[in-house]
Every structure is written in C-alpha cells, then in structure tokens.
Amino acid sequence: MAIPAYKSPRAASYDIVIVGGAVIGSSIAYWLTENEGFDGSILVVERDSSYEFSSTALSTSAIRQQYSNPINVHISQFGVEFIESFRDRMQKFYPDEPAPDLGFRENGYLYCIPPEGVEAARARVALQREHGAHTVFLEPGPLKEQFPWLNVDDLGGGSWGAKAEGWFDSVGLMTGFKRGARHNGAEYIDNEVMALGRDGDRVTSVTLKTGETVDCGIVVNAAGPRASLVAGMAGLSIPVEPRKRHSFVFASRNPIPGRMPNVIDPGGTFVRPEHELFLTGNTPTPDGPADSEDFETKHDEFDDYIWPALYHRIPAFDALKVQQFWTGHYAYNTLDHNAIVGFHSTVRNFMFANGYSGHGLQQSPAVGRGVAELIVHGEYRTLDLSPLCYERTERNEPFLEEAVI
C-alpha cells in the first residue's frame, strides 16, 4: 500500500467526525449537508484516499431486492431510485459539464433454488412482491424455457428479479457522494484515526496519525472492515470482522445468448456478464476472519470450487480463461449478516454505520439518508431503520437476513 501524503484538519473542533470516507461515510456526509436542518461542521477522515483497497472499489457493484426482510427490500428500492436519478441529483455539483450516470445494467438476479428450498423461496418471493418487488418464481420447465443455457436438472426452480436489479458503477456512486458533500462544505482529509478520547458517556476527541487531536460532537463509525478497531478505540465492541471475497473475470469460448442475469448457484457461486467477459466469485472455503491488510487472492478457489460449480450450472462454461482478479473485504456481521446502524446505547454520541456483510454499496443511499435524519432530527423521517439498531447486538438478538451471498 502506498504511503499517503497525510493532511491535517483545518479546525480544532468539528460537530461531526466521520471515520471512513468511502461510500458509506461519503453518503452520510452528503445527506447531512443536503439536510436543511443541519448547519454544522463535518470532518471526514479517510486512511486510503486512493480508495485502492476500499470495499467500495473492490466490490462487485450490484443491487437487488431479493431479501428475506422487508426493510432490506425497501432499502434497495430506494437505492435503485437513487441510482436511476443519480445524474439529475448530481447535476448541480457539475456546473460546467454533464453529470455522469452510473451505467445501471438492469439485467436482474436469478437465484437457483434446490428442491428442498422451494417452499422458503416461494415465501420470500411472496414477501418481496408484497413490498413492491418484481420477483417471480419459475418452476424448472419455465426456468429452462427462459434461460435455455441453464442446467435445471437438480433444481426445484428459480427466483428471478427481472426489474430494478442489476449492477452499476460503484466508484461513480462514491465519487458523487463525495463531490456533493465537499461542494456543500464537508472537509475531507487523508489521515488515519489512531485513538478516541472518551469521558464517561461521550467521545470527546479524535487523535490522528499526524498527531493532531480534534474535538468532536458526534463520531460516526463508517470504517468498513475496520469497524471493530474503531469501536474498540472508544472501549466499545461490535460483531464485525473482515472476510475476504475473491473476484475473477474470465473469458468463455462459448457465448451466452440473450440478456443474462446475475446467476446465483445454490452453493453460493455467482456469475454475470461483463460485456464479452464474465465476472464470478463465491463464498470462499473456508470462510473466516481475515487480516485487514490481507488482500492476497486465493487462486485455487477458482480452480477447485468456482469453475466446477459454473460448469455444472451452465454447461457452456466448459472452457474458461481467467483474465483478471482481485480480492476485497466484506465487513461481515457475525451476528446476523445485517447492517448495524444507530447510536450506542450508553455512549450517546457514537454512531455505528457498519457490518453490511457485502450489501453496503447498494444500501449506502438509504443508510446515509437515515443516519443523517437520526443525527439531525433524532428520529428516522423516511425509512425506519430501527430494526438495524446497535442494541440488538448487546442483547445478542439476531435480526437475520437469509439471502446473503
């Protein structure tokens, strides 16, 4: 990792200090500065200002509504709305040129369902449709008819989201949030938080790697896979750890005809088209905590697990060649795979925005808006994100999300 040219803050005190300036931290900064009820100062501290190793830049940049909890369905629905309206929302920050769009490819998601999972899958589809999603359940015959290149012999059917699901430009989304936040007055610095000062039930200060200490009104933990380290600086804890996820881009000698969705195999391997190539990944074997600085790719994961799964599900993938690869980190919530959003129960000025377990990018518009509402108004004004509250981790009461990739 390149050594950053650290910058110092301009002031000695800020109303809000956000630890982490990738997509979650920048979304929070953006929504705060867009909120008419907020007129405070914001400092965003980002240790990797190139974002080379951020989960945002290393993600697979997708969004779906196929979840088992209504709140996650609604979070993604707002995410799609934001992505589709991104250019119009951002145009005011690009006075001399057209604002970019995020290249949303609305190809959908297809979950392949084994026979023993059909009843649960049908129930999820019914829940999703009840909350406005476009998901349909296809039995093996119609599934084969819709996707003739798919092996359905061992499937009980498929859950297909044909609308408002797909993939987009992750860095573009983050850059838009950041550009808007900075335009509106938020300050970003290339630095690292090394310690937090605490006096009883309040965090009082933030100490930076360059030695400065800044006073703070509220600290927001948006540190991604390093969230537990930041919480620990205040004497707090959350069940979030880094988990490695390997991504591979490959070429196939056989093209896949038609509009191919993001295909999710029952074992967790996914594959989707990327122009003439394909992107794939899986839940690694074994899957456990990783060092926050470990980005080494496990290449035998492709040879031993991913390729066999791909060939079984899509027989046209009989001859593949990896073109590129990378490894990123999930901020994995070991309690229930759901985000932890809200203030600490006793340290009332410490805000969590952590533990998305691979969903942070798609959830960033709604979570950033919600955190801003909670800070400014003391309550959620749009989506009620209270089921994701920190207190459930203290009670050890999971708010489980079944549909985790």
TrEMBL record:
Pfam families attached to this UniProt entry: DAO
Stored SUPFAM superfamilies: FAD/NAD(P)-binding domain
Residues annotated as transmembrane: none
Residue ranges annotated for the FAD dependent oxidoreductase domain, each copy included: 15-374
GO BP term (any one): mitochondrial respiratory chain complex I assembly
Keywords recorded for this protein, A-Z: Oxidoreductase
InterPro entries given in the database record: FAD-dep_OxRdtase, FAD/NAD-bd_sf
Gene Ontology MF terms in the entry: oxidoreductase activity
Gene Ontology CC entries for this record: cytoplasm
Protein name: FAD-dependent oxidoreductase
